[in-house]
């Protein structure tokens, strides 16, 4: 596939119906994940008056060293004073972190994933009443020999506006535990690989942290240790 065609596909995350859809049964949510955190998150497009959306991720998760499986709770919250209206949450995995399922959500086709992402799910949310939140049980795998990130944008259902985006933010550990049953990972921490001789993080994926998730020009951000970056994609006009 040409690089031009691949770049065009990378930004096409806004279609109402995805070519590959998987509605999942309710999986168990991992226990003892610690309090929720909005670390790595920032408001992007202006939300409707009285609506204040944000997402929360656990501060700690645990990866089974044998199966590489982990579970993450992703929460969407409306801290405003008015109903949010219909919105959607995207759960997207990068590099070592691969999303394998999200409770009640639809898998995003590989061709519709943003550049650098390896997996993703789209979750219908709302209308979310003022002061209310909803949580999703996320099933994933994590290759502890690499670095991994997760991203949670909250958008209008057509993807034209992104009211909030958390990430891509890393989960990782500076104290790998290759001989233990499980390895705890902390939100916002770059992973030190478990593999022998892993003194430096491997270079995985593309060298950018901004998700082009809106073909209609949704401006998205990525928050990391070095700061916050903006990116805005112009809408594509297909020939009639």
Based on the model shown, name its key terms.
about 240 residues, mainly beta, 8-stranded antiparallel β-sheet, 5-stranded antiparallel β-sheet, 1 helix
How would you characterize the overall build of this protein?
- This protein has 240 residues and is mainly beta.
- 3% of the residues lie in helices and 41% in strands.
- The chain is built from 1 helix and 15 strands.
- The strands form 3 sheets. Strands 2, 4, 6, 8, 9, 11, 12 and 13 form an 8-stranded antiparallel β-sheet that branches.
- The two termini are 24 Å apart.
Q: What topology emerges from the helices and strands here?
A:
Layout: H1 3-10, E1 36-37, E2 41-43, E3 53-58, E4 60-64, E5 69-78, E6 87-95, E7 97-102, E8 106-107, E9 117-125, E10 133-142, E11 148-156, E12 162-172, E13 182-187, E14 220-224, E15 227-231
Antiparallel strand pairs: 1-3, 2-12, 3-5, 4-13, 5-10, 6-9, 6-11, 7-10, 8-9, 11-12, 12-13, 14-15
